UniProtKB/TrEMBL annotation:
Alphabetical keyword list: DNA damage, DNA repair, Hydrolase, Mitochondrion, Nucleus
Enzyme active site: 148 (proton acceptor)
Taxonomy, superkingdom: Eukaryota
GO BP terms: base-excision repair, AP site formation via deaminated base removal
InterPro entries: UDG_fam1 (IPR002043), Ura-DNA_Glyclase_AS (IPR018085), Uracil-DNA_glycosylase-like (IPR005122), Uracil-DNA_glycosylase-like_sf (IPR036895)
Reactions performed catalytically: Hydrolyzes single-stranded DNA or mismatched double-stranded DNA and polynucleotides, releasing free uracil
Native source species: Coccomyxa viridis
UniProt GO cellular component terms: mitochondrion; nucleus
Entry protein name: Uracil-DNA glycosylase
One Pfam family, short name: UDG
Record's subcellular location: Mitochondrion; Nucleus
Gene3D superfamilies: Uracil-DNA glycosylase-like domain
């Protein structure tokens, strides 16, 4: 089945913001560190103009439909879907396509094929690459990196830290909402669905994209980290002036993938209950991110999640 192009290719200077968030709150660091890129660095790829929220929403919806169809077709043939078939967005397929032929990805495919046969795996197959399919490389404005998906029934939806309406809001997200309330005067929602952010080009990435039901970190060190590290490296190499928000020690390890001469880096404690009071509360990263976007002539992210979903 041919893959649809879900993004614009018109070139125009832009700025993205990358928020790297670890889920290991116990290991979080409290320091707040800011670095600014050199003024004369060049970039390899000029990003396209920002698509509208409606355009990104429509593209994300089409991508889920395509991924669902491919998963159903594989099931009808008695086979698991190929991971590369679930990655629909053309810009990410172009950027990461070579990764799927590497030995580590073949091993990951074999591992997941066994896991799907023997266990319940989250998120559902069509949503595994939802973060990628919702935010083309040249449309990314913010990236939020979690560790791995929620492992309880019905929680994981393919977007880091986000849970569907009707599910309890996890503690780290509760604290993110508190900081948003203090930093940007956002009203605290009664749900944890962050889909609205993804429709503004917020790349909500987990370092590991799948998990076995009720078994946290069960799919770690199977190859996902190599792929998602490659995605971060793509953004670092191909974009200029990104702002990396690194929350907690796990996320801050990703700084080694980022060219600090080209990009801004902000660091703070993890928002979990174990460490939010050690530097996350009061970091004001959301308003700082928007300030960078405004400086580049781009509209800020509307961080306000609808109070009722």
């Amino acid at each position: 089945m041919p893959t649809r192009t879900l993004h614009s290719s018109v070139a125009q200077r832009s700025l993205s913001v990358v928020a790297a968030v670890s889920e290991d709150g116990k290991a979080a660091e409290s320091a707040v560190i800011e670095t600014t890129p050199a003024a004369n660095d060049s970039t390899d790829v000029q990003p396209a103009p920002k698509l509208s929220t409606e355009e990104l929403r429509a593209a994300a919806g089409r991508a889920i439909e395509i991924a669902s169809l491919r998963a159903e077709q594989a099931k009808a043939l008695g086979a698991p879907p190929k991971l590369e078939d679930l990655l629909v967005d053309e810009s990410w397929r172009d950027a990461l396509g070579a990764e799927f032929s590497k030995p580590y990805m073949r091993k990951l495919q074999e591992f997941l094929s066994r896991e799907w046969q023997q266990h319940s795996i989250y998120p559902p197959q069509p949503l595994i690459f939802r973060a990628f399919n919702s935010a083309p490389v040249d449309q990314v404005r913010v990236v939020v990196i979690g560790q791995d998906p929620y492992h309880n029934t019905g929680q994981a939806m393919g977007l880091s830290f986000s849970v569907p309406p009707g599910k309890a809001v996890p503690s780290s997200l509760q604290n993110i909402y508190k900081e948003l309330q203090e930093d940007c005067a956002c009203t605290k929602p009664k749900h944890g669905d962050l889909e609205k952010w993804s429709h503004q080009g917020v790349f909500m990435l987990n370092a590991v994209l799948t998990v076995r039901a009720h078994d946290a970190a069960s799919h770690g060190k199977q190859g996902w980290e190599t792929l998602t590290d490659a995605a971060i490296s793509v953004l670092s190499a191909r974009r200029r002036g990104l702002v990396f928000l690194l929350w907690g020690r796990y996320a801050q390890q990703k700084a080694s993938l980022i060219d600090s001469k080209k990009h801004h880096i902000l660091k703070a404690a993890h928002p979990s209950g174990f460490s939010a009071n050690k530097g996350f509360f009061g970091c004001k990263h959301f308003s700082k991110a928007n300030a960078f976007l405004k400086k580049e002539g781009l509209p800020p992210v509307d961080w306000q999640i609808d109070p009722v979903q």
